[in-house]
Specification:
alpha+beta; 7 strands; about 25% helix; globular
Length: about 150
């Protein structure tokens, strides 16, 4: 193989590697932009979850609630939450269902549930049914970049 062919082969290999790496980075960037960063947290009780300094449960979650699971968008304010048992405090009042749809997903979150919430606890829309509490906090951050 002459020198010209070797240089061409090396250039093609380097270009192929660059395209492959760029493609991976682009896919990751699009996935991150579309889905954001998500973190899931689980606690035995509401009181335990309120002590977690990284993902602190809201104050209205009953301390005696059990099997608490929360999915949090770390690049925004959207959250979904599920717990079993415990009584909601008086600060949770009857209110309109969430106008926004949840973009977060979990196998325990019934699709469209946010449109059936009937209580408001601060920034959260809540539904208690059959002893389980479900709560949705809509995204409040506005993206000004296009």
């Amino acid at each position: 193989m002459n020198t010209s062919m070797k240089i061409t082969a090396v250039a093609v290999t380097v270009a192929g590697a660059a395209v492959a790496l760029t493609g991976c980075g682009l896919k990751e960037g699009l996935t991150e932009k579309a889905n954001g960063h998500v973190r899931t947290a689980g606690y035995a009780t509401g009181a335990e979850g309120k002590r977690d300094q990284d993902v602190r449960l809201p104050d209205w979650v009953p301390d005696k609630a059990e099997s608490v699971t929360e999915v949090v968008r770390t690049t925004g304010s959207e959250r979904i939450l599920r717990f079993t048992g415990g009584n909601l405090p008086a600060t949770c009042v009857p209110g309109a269902a969430a106008a926004q749809s949840a973009t977060l997903v979990a196998d325990w979150w019934p699709r469209g549930l946010e449109s059936r919430t009937d209580k408001v606890c601060g920034e959260w829309h809540v539904l208690v049914q059959d002893g389980d509490g479900y709560a949705f906090r809509p995204e409040t951050l506005v993206n000004t970049r296009s």
